[in-house]
Specification:
With about 475 residues, the protein is mainly α. The chain has four domains: about 5-80 and about 235-310, HUPs (Rossmann fold, 3-Layer(aba) Sandwich); about 80-235, HUPs (Rossmann fold, 3-Layer(aba) Sandwich); about 320-370, no CATH class; about 380-480, Orthogonal Bundle (Arc Repressor Mutant, subunit A), CATH 1.10.10.350. The protein is built from 20 helices and twelve strands. The protein has helices at about 20-35, 50-65, 80-90, 105-115, 130-140, 185-195, 215-220, 255-260, 265-270, 285-290, 305-320, 325-335, 350-360, 375, 385-390, 395-410, 415-430, 435-445, 455-460, 465-480; strands spanning about 5-10, 35-40, 70-75, 95-100, 145-150, 155-160, 165-170, 175-180, 200-205, 230-235, 235, 305. Strand 9 (about 200-205), helix 7 (about 215-220) and strand 10 (about 230-235) form a beta-alpha-beta unit. Helix 17 crosses helix 19 (about 455-460) and helix 18 packs across helix 19. The radius of gyration is 32 Å and the shape is elongated. The N and C termini lie far apart (about 75 Å). It binds one RNA strand of 75 nucleotides through helix 4, strand 5, strand 7, strand 8 and helix 6.
Length: about 475
RNA sequence: GGCGCUAUCGUCUAGGGGUUAGGACGUGAGAUUCUCAAUCUCAAAACCCGGGUUCGAUUCCCGGUAGCGCUACCA
């Protein structure tokens, strides 16, 4: 049995951020690589800012990304007793003490210190309070927080799997709060208690927690628990190298789903943000990613989120997936856009799959289905102005397209081959280049300048639609410019 | 301010005491012709600065600078 147990522990104070998604992915990849267990834990100890809607959103995004968890989700809000018990134990053993200072007065002190440029740290003024003092203050109705007693001398040293040897002097760490005066545990206590309780072997989390790690280590020691290994993952930045935020664009993992990004492309792209297999491989499908994954390959410097590269990965995956693999994703997208036709999974399924196959090479995202490729699935498709400008310039086109429609209509065994024959023969007869007709017809049939081979388009659309759209285009061209 | 971490093409990165410093995205040019946002080819593009160590640093050490993180009774 493998002893590796990792966890992803988001706090439901917002949607799943791409940084969080990447952290979840790294945990998941590692668990899958070594046959470990991936635990999901919701850190909702901040009751004020947490909500069940956010929990649902996070779970949904995780599921979309395919990052299935083996245990959980566990909710810290339901495990309060565990933390309280630990805090009591810590106090009994002298590792923690009651602090009756009021947050606002402490805040005042801190502000003052900041103003005078002095470093601020809680001075441990309540350390020396006796049980008698406690009784007296309790009688006065004062509330207290529980603080951890950080040793005066020495330092915390640990070895981070990605950052190597790290050392923090004790005097840099203040006596941090374990239990707030409202009786609720803080993040520091609950993470450590849970990581112990859930037998977490590797803590893989964002590098923003590197500076918190010494506090956690102190707690592990005080609680007499085995120490997990730590691997801190560098942060993801926006294009201006500041922490990725809304002003850089979409930060919610779910937003990429909306954009038509495939989950597997997202996984591949995210995996390479702060990790490398050590060779030149980049395009790696998920099984290969798992196979190649290692904590040692994580880099130490933060990475800029590059949307263009994500889009490139996505276009690659669009090609990699078969029409059958695409089918359910396409259905979801069509339904979402309100233009799903149930026939496509019934009598027209073969046509649907074939058409998917046809348009796939030019698709960069699932959204192209209802965007650039809309004309394949609906009759109300927009006419791209640039396409019109480019290929509908020739004055003869109105007449030519109308005649071409007639030629096409006259074909008995209509398919790509016979359509091509008809068009080329007609071009010769009319003394125009086939390209002129082909390009103009493409715009007529799809509304786009870019589309698959015209004759394949004709075949997929069928004779009737082809003729109808050719005639409609001729009409538009005849009508005075509007 | 204090503490910590980081620093290779615009971006993601490989590499490492002696290399033409490799790959990918993006960019530019060409090929292809039935369009290209497909495909192929080619090109431009990087070791933050200053000291040391060394025969030799981009690589090791120190300092600087910059960026980021932490510095809460947020997580």
């Amino acid at each position: 049995m493998s002893a590796v147990r990792v966890r992803f522990a988001p706090s439901p104070t917002g949607y799943l951020h791409v940084g969080g998604a990447r952290t979840a992915l790294f945990n998941w990849l590692y668990a899958r690589k070594v046959g470990g267990v991936f635990v999901l834990r919701i850190e909702d100890t901040d009751a004020e800012r947490s909500s069940t809607e956010m929990v649902d959103g996070i779970l949904d995004s995780l599921q979309w990304l395919g990052l299935n968890w083996d245990e959980g989700p566990f909710f810290q809000s339901q495990r309060k007793d565990l933390y309280l018990t630990a805090a009591r134990k810590l106090q009994e053993k002298g590792f923690a003490y009651r602090c009756y200072c009021h947050p606002s007065e402490l805040n005042e002190l801190r502000l003052q210190a900041e103003k005078s440029g002095k470093p601020w740290k809680y001075d441990g003024r309540c350390t020396a309070l006796s049980p008698q003092d406690h009784q007296r203050l309790d009688a006065e109705g004062r509330t207290f927080a529980v603080r951890f007693r950080v040793p005066q001398e020495g330092a915390v040293k640990f070895q981070d799997i990605v950052f190597g040897d790290v050392e923090f002097s004790h005097d840099q760490i203040e006596d941090f709060v374990l239990i707030r005066s409202d009786g609720l545990p803080t993040f520091h206590l609950s993470v450590v208690v849970d990581d112990i309780d859930m037998h977490i072997s590797h803590v893989i989390r964002g590098a923003d927690h590197l500076s918190n790690t010494p506090k956690h280590i102190l707690l592990f020691q005080a609680l007499d628990a085995p120490m997990p290994a730590f691997a801190h993952v560098p942060l993801i930045l926006g294009p201006d190298r500041s922490r990725l935020s809304k002003r850089h664009g979409a930060t919610a993992a779910g937003a990429y789903r909306e954009m038509g990004i495939l989950a597997e492309a997202m996984r591949n792209f995210l995996s390479l943000l702060g990790w490398s297999p050590g060779d030149n491989r980049e395009l790696m499908r998920t099984p290969e990613l798992i196979e190649a994954y290692s904590l040692e390959g994580i880099s130490r410097s933060s990475a800029v989120f590059d949307l263009q590269k994500l889009e490139w990965f996505n276009s690659q995956y669009m090609q990699l997936l078969t029409a059958e693999e695409l089918e359910p994703l396409a259905k979801e997208k069509f339904i979402q856009q309100g233009c799903w036709n149930p026939d496509w999974e019934g009598e027209s399924r073969q046509w649907f799959l074939k058409t998917l196959e046809l348009i796939k090479p030019r698709m960069r995202s699932l959204n192209d289905l209802t965007g650039a490729s809309r004309a394949f699935f609906a009759d109300d498709f927009p006419l791209d102005m640039a396409a019109k400008e480019k290929f509908w310039k020739d004055e003869r086109l109105s007449e030519l397209l109308s005649q071409l429609a007639g030629e096409i209509d006259g074909i008995d065994a209509f398919d790509a081959t016979t359509a091509e024959q008809a068009l080329r023969t007609f071009a010769d007869k009319s003394g125009v280049k086939a390209g002129l007709l082909i390009n103009a017809a493409r715009v007529a049939l799809t509304g786009q300048a870019v589309a698959p081979s015209l004759f394949a388009v004709m075949e997929t659309l069928g004779k009737a639609k082809t003729v109808r759209r050719l005639q409609a285009a001729a009409q538009i061209l005849t009508a005075p410019a509007s």
